[in-house]
Amino acid sequence: MIVTTMEKPDAAVLAEAGRLAGELGCPLVPRRRETIAGLRRRHAEAEDGVLVVGRDELRFVTNGEPPLFYHPSMALVRIKRLMDGGADALVVAADAKPGDVVLDCTAGLASDALVLSYAVGAEGRVTGVEASRTLYVIVREGLRSYVSEVEPVNEAMRRIRLVQSDHLAVLRELPDRSVDIVTFDPMFSQPVQASASIRPLRAVAEDEPLTAAAVAEARRVARKRIVLKEHRDSELFERLGFERVRSSYSAVDYGVILIHDV
Q: What is the pTM of this model?
């Protein structure tokens, strides 16, 4: 991977590109008048992709896929629905309440973390764990800088704490009963092809299966419940001990493990 900038970057963009290249341990390549395709042809390191630094936005470009960048996407619609008094399938499955502490073990683009951050409010706390360093950087910077037209959404974004790590390692370091809700949303075993936002995500995401060891650690750590979001045809629910909760989304179900010793 290489890092470059938008065309005609100012000093702030150049400084940010240098900082991110250092953090990611990859070359910083001046943009000059070169196209992204041209940079990819000239630099062997760009085979894995190009991180383009702009003003308040990062774009990750790979061959044959749409650019990956941070956007609240459907989380914005879901939060607006909650603000209007509607329901959200994940919030219901998680029984998320103001003040709850949530660990999102597979943050991805942090859409679910954002909805849960709104649901638990300023008195709650949401930590998202993302294994991919590239995706972590893109989403971390987006959560810091993206501005929507809905101020409660902006506030919910800023409250999310993002961690770059393997979720099993994070779970193993947590004390017993230290969070209220643990959520898992692994890359679906059967991709939902209609989801345009998932295609570029798959190029950088760590596609590791959810394991029984991770669920066992979640059982130790959670105070209230564990939630799994998966394709409706997945066998993970039954294999890992989740009780299915049918959602309103045609391709998605939720599974719940209730923690009874609370």
A: 0.91
220, with CB counted inside 10 A (0-12, 13-18, 19+), is: middle
User: What pLDDT is recorded for position 248?
Assistant: 60
DSSP string, 156-186: HHHH-EEEES-HHHHHHHSPTT-EEEEEE-P
- The answer to whether the beta carbons of residues 105 and 171 sit under 8 Å apart is yes
CATH classification of the domain holding 214: 3.40.50.150
Closest CA to 78 of 107, 116, 51: 116
In tens, the pLDDT along 55-106 reads 989 999 987 778 999 999 899 999 999 999 999 999 999 999 999 999 999 9
User: How wide is the angle at C-alpha 181 spanned by C-alphas 180 and 184, nearest 5°?
Assistant: 160
Centroid of chain to Cα 130? 7
Sign for the CA dihedral angle at 195, 113, 20, 55 comes to positive
218: helix, coil or strand?
helix
Q: Is 126 inside any structural domain?
A: yes
Rounded CA-CA distance 54/165 in Å is 26
End-to-end C-alpha distance for the chain, whole angstroms = 47
Same structural domain, 119 and 208: yes
**Does residue 50 sit in the same domain as residue 89?**
no
**Residue 174, φ and ψ in degrees, nearest 5:** -85, 145
C-beta atoms surrounding 2 within 10 Å: 22
Domains: count for the chain: 2
For residues 116 and 47, state if they share a domain.
Answer: no
